Sequence to fold (547 residues):
Amino acid sequence: MKHLKIIEQITITLIIAVLIPFITIGIIISNISQQSVRNELKMNASIMAEFTADSTEKYLEFSQSQLNQLASAFNYMPNSMYKTKYFKNIEQKATLFKNLGVIEKNKLPANKKQIKDDYLTLYAPIDKEGRFYLRGQIKINIINELFESKNTKGRNILIIDENTKEIITSNTNNIEIKEEIKNFKYNKGVKSGFFGSSKNTPKAYAKIENSPWVVIVDTTKKVTKDTINKARGKILLSLLFAGLSIITIVSLYSYYLYINIRQLFKGITAISKGNYDKKIHLLKTAFTPHEIIFLAKEFNYMANKINTSYKDLKQKNKKLNQLNEYRENLISSTSHEFRTPLTSIIGYTSRLLRHDIKLDEETKIKSLKIIKNQAQRLSRMVEDLLTIPELDSSSMKFNLQETDLNEIVQRILEYQYNENIPFDFKSETEVPFVWADEHRLEQVLINLVDNAQKYTLDNTAVKVRIKKLNKCPAIEIANKCEKITSEEKEKLFDKFVRLDSSLTRKTRGTGLGLYIVKGLCAQMNIEIRLKCKNEFVISLKFKDYVK
Fold:
């Protein structure tokens, strides 16, 4: 089974848990809104029809009552002259009626409410016997003013008679309503109601009292568009905006979450590949969860701990390798260097112990001197080996005392005398005594003189000078030797360093002499200076001296 990525899972969850229910709720709300607006349109149409019917009825009743009052006044006139004068007077001053006149009963039309040229004719009896009637015409455009009010805007309003004939209409060009009216059947027992088949364009009617007329109110498609469709559009637009907002917020959240989790993945991958310096840098926003920030912080802390432990382990491994190398070099060097003097000692001792030959006194003395020299050489090597652990642990103790440099240097030169390598010794007068451990200083000078003798060129002397450097007592040991490179110069005071390689080695030694010299001088406050130009010169500058 394929495992989906976080962004894919969030997308699927968003669709299933949010978008589908959201769309379903939107459809339900839209339908409910449509039903509500449809009922509102139906109610408004019914109210409008009843209002128009009542208004028309009151207008007709008012006009009829005014005409009846004018007609009743004729009964109080004493003669026909006054009646003629009164008739002419009200005909001139009356604004409600037009074409006033008297008509006999037998000339009354069958339908008293006749409309002609936008005028409605009304009749009122003049005498008690009902032989004569007063006739007057009122303007139908006064009724049309009701159709043009703000509340009726956008609707078709008609007044029809009981035969569905149009009496008054606000829109004579509407063919659809005319087709609907043809099928309209008025129930005389019902004052108002609805007809038609369309739900979104309800048609209401209302009966005008004391009249054969019926008011029809038609809800046009324009009204439907302005109400149902507009409301639906607003709902859909709101839902769309809400949906886009949800998608945008979830997308931003998913984007930042995905970026930060990718940072975690990269950090874990780097750690698994051995890159312990890798740190997680989050993109912190309002969408970054606290748990991710906490996890990144703990991861960086863990990576730092691992990196520190790794560096410590690496350093310790390096030291362990150095110790292994030191052990191997020590075994190799000491086994080789110890073998030569031991062989000499054993050989000459065996020679002295032989009884089958007789040795003269000079040969015995010479053999004993060789045995002594080789024994001293072994002693120095053992002392060097015992000095190294004390130097490394900084646990060496010194017996500092006033020391005469001239005396100790001359003793060392006598001790290291070699007829093949002469010494060129010079000392300035008035060189002060120095503070030093005499035994350790001898060890330093023996190692330096011994090295100078090993590497000096043939037929050249080792120069030894006692003088002052910047008012401080100093010893310089110089010899001419082969050229030393800068890399060799930097490693010269390290352990087991030899200027000649193991393949071309002609001199003896363990490679520890200069390392011991450096350590002893540092602890006795003696500054070492090295110059490699025409000669190889090592200077010992004594900072502690008797002033």
